[in-house]
Amino acid sequence: MKRIGLIVAVELDAVKENLHEPLWEKEEHGFALSCYQVGQSELIVAHCGVGQFAAIQATEYLILNYQVSLIFNFGVVGALTEQIASTPFVFVEDVVHSDADLNFMEGYPLGRHEGFDSPYLPLDASLLKQAHNAMPEAPLVRAASGDAFIASTQRKQWLHETFQADICDMEISGIAYTAARFNVPCFSCKMVGDSVHGGVEEYHATKEDISRRCFSLLLSMESLFRE
Fold it and tell me: Judging by DSSP bridges, how do beta strands 186-194 and 121-122 pair with one another?
């Protein structure tokens, strides 16, 4: 049976409401872990909390301790363009760690990490193709991912202009870079919670409903959960 790791920052209620009774639940090293059977796969959920460091640690923990063969992520994000703000559901094609700044090293533009050829890290092409075949109306986007919640319209516009990014969040770069280091395929789908001109209040007003819808759509792509 295929074993998939799911990294969840704050949207755990969406998982519980869609999947109901887990096969098991436990807490290890500060992570709330649970396991569900989804299709032909075993889905191991790590509720890590907010931010890059928490996401990195949870991703590495599932890979090393539970030998997951895939890493999935879903969640609520901010829009960086008006067009994306009106789009209900997106697939992350690539990600940039927007806080990475190695300008003291020659040939390292903003966002590029040492050991990587570009600031833009692609997620797994095969998983992305499966998802896009199942839901072709969902656009492929670039995520700018950093260590702070982006509430400022000016900062959102800067992220779009600097990195040509479409959405922003606080976890997916940590998840994707960790998965890449361990050669584990990574897939992420997102829904917009706050618009270009929105902020904390808009995020909190939409988070619960949008996270449920986002996870429900992830589950509906049954091909991702087959052997």
Answer: unpaired
Under 8 Å between Cβ of 169 and 178? no
- Confirm if 47 and 145 have CB atoms less than 8 A apart: no
Classify strands 41-47 and 2-8 as parallel, antiparallel or unpaired.
Answer: parallel
Question: What pLDDT, on a 0 to 100 scale, did the predictor assign at position 227?
Answer: 76
| Domains present along the chain, CATH in parentheses | 2-225 (3.40.50.1580)
DSSP string, 10-71: S-HHHHHHHH-S-SEEEEETTEEEEEEEETTEEEEEEE--SSHHHHHHHHHHHHHHH--SEE
Spell out, as residue ranges, where the chain has pLDDT lower than 70.
none
For position 148, what pLDDT does the model report?
Answer: 93
Q: Give the pLDDT confidence score for residue 144 in this predicted structure.
A: 98
User: pLDDT tens across 178-224, in order?
Assistant: 999 999 999 999 999 988 998 889 888 888 898 999 999 999 999 99
Rg (CA), the chain: 17
In contact, 111 and 121? CB cutoff 8 Å = no
Among 165, 201, 207, 186, which Cα is nearest to 77's? 207
User: Token digits for 5?
Assistant: 């790791």
In angstroms, the CA 82 to CA 51 distance is 25
Q: Tell me, what's the pLDDT at 87?
A: 84
